[in-house]
Amino acid sequence: MTHPERKRKIIELVSRNKSVQIAQLTSLFGVSVMTIRRDLDELEKQHYIKRVYGGAVLNEEELNKPYFPRAAFNSTVKELIARKAVELIKDGDTIILDLGSTVLQVSKHLDEMKGLSVITCSIPVINELDAYSDIRVYSLGGELYRENHAFLGSETESSISMYCADIAFIGAAGVSIEHGLTNFYYPTASLCRRIIKQSKKVVLLADSSKFGKAKIAVVGGLSEIDVIITDTGIPQEYLDEFERLGVEVLQVENV
Fold this sequence. Notes:
By secondary structure, the protein is of the alpha/beta class. It has helices at 3-17, 22-29, 33-45, 60-63, 75-86, 101-107, 123-129, 154-160, 186-197, 236-245; strands at residues 19-21, 49-52, 55-58, 94-97, 117-120, 136-139, 143-145, 150-152, 165-170, 174-176, 180-183, 199-205, 217-220, 227-231, 248-252. The strands form four sheets. The protein has a seven-stranded parallel beta sheet, with helices on both faces.
């Protein structure tokens, strides 16, 4: 395993379990204590973790900032979720991709689709789709929020009302039985509500680390979702709740 691969796996472990121990990592990777300490020092400098005695914990303060490179967390699971999402898309569909880190992964696996139209406010998504000449891309206007690498605000929400999509793929910072879908702050939550209204089918992409959490900005209730794609780490109470609501649940392996 290369140095970058080992650090990426450490990030996945600490994001899933909230903490890791040096002894655990040396045993898992078969490397020395000094090697793991250097890895943790580097990850702390990048603000992914905080060092504690004998290990490290997730830097949740940094994670909860408006735009943080969340794609590095649970990256393997997020890619599996994205690949499963692509299976729901048919040639000729019109889809909306929001600005979530898991949704971004969907845009990386559309190379075999024909006649697709994609609506998005996300600059990283647009950059990914630029390479696919058979995909028509519609960029939503509005104010550029540089920390999100996306266009947001009232003009963006007005723009989305001009479209009707077959499927919308959305993310969420928190998924709670009590509070429904929530996001880090109001502009993203408000746009997501508009996206839901303009779509025939709404697909939530959320790894199991999002469940049981509620952030400040409410998007909507769980009943507004048609399909959720997650991993096998989803708590049973949420599976029961989605069954009660008639929401289809698709799961990928929690690797």
